[in-house]
């Protein structure tokens, strides 16, 4: 019973550290609050295994991963909008990149790209994008309710939970 209590204690500690992680790989408002609700490690795997076929070379006009100039306009949009565009398709990008990916997979990949591109822009000393319309107005380090709710809805809406 004591080991089980320690396990719950450890799980609670991990949850708290994720929710209250130290702010600040970048200085603009809302940076942490929009991508932290997503599984960025999973997003990295999904993106590198599925999305790089177009985003590595700019195939079909896709913005090139790591090229902050290609992503500048996109980063000015709310993350929810970018996720919706990737899921439903937008411009020349087909829905889900014409792949068999879940909404959760796509959302995590988009959050990873946004997070990584912001880090690269900050390292390059490029001006940070203005706060996106509809972005969180909460405290630094606070995950906005809409981002948490979107991930929750993506999770419960999948057949894997039935």
Q: Ranges with pLDDT <50 over ≥5 residues?
A: 19-29, 131-141
The radius of gyration is 17 Å
The total count of strands amounts to: 0
Q: Report the biggest beta sheet as strand number plus sense, adding barrel if it closes.
A: none
Question: Secondary-structure element order, as H and E?
Answer: HHHHHHH
- Number of helical segments with 4 or more residues: 7
Provide the residue-averaged pLDDT: 75
Secondary-structure class: mainly alpha
Name the helicity range.
55-70%
**How many domains, as an integer?**
1
* CATH hierarchy, class: Mainly Alpha
Quote the beta fraction.
Answer: under 5%
Based on CA inertia axes, which overall geometry fits?
globular
Annotated CATH architecture: Orthogonal Bundle
CATH level-4 homologous superfamily: Cytochrome c-like domain
CATH topology: Cytochrome Bc1 Complex, Chain D, domain 2
Task: Report the end-to-end length measured between terminal Cα atoms.
Answer: 31 Å
């Amino acid at each position: 019973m004591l080991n089980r209590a320690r396990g719950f204690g450890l799980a609670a500690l991990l949850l708290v550290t994720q929710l209250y992680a130290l702010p600040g790989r970048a200085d603009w408002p809302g940076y942490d609050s929009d991508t932290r609700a997503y599984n960025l490690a999973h997003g990295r795997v999904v993106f590198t295994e599925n999305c790089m076929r177009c985003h590595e070379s700019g195939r079909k006009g896709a913005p090139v991963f790591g090229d902050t100039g290609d992503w500048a306009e996109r980063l000015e949009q709310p993350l929810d909008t970018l996720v919706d565009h990737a899921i439903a398709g937008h411009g020349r990008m087909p829905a889900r990149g014409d792949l068999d990916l879940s909404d959760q997979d796509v959302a995590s990949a988009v959050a990873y790209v946004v997070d990584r591109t912001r880090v690269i822009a900050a390292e390059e000393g490029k001006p940070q994008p203005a706060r996106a319309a509809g972005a969180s107005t909460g405290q630094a380090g606070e995950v906005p309710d809409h981002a948490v709710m979107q991930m929750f809805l993506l999770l419960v809406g999948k057949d894997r939970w039935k």
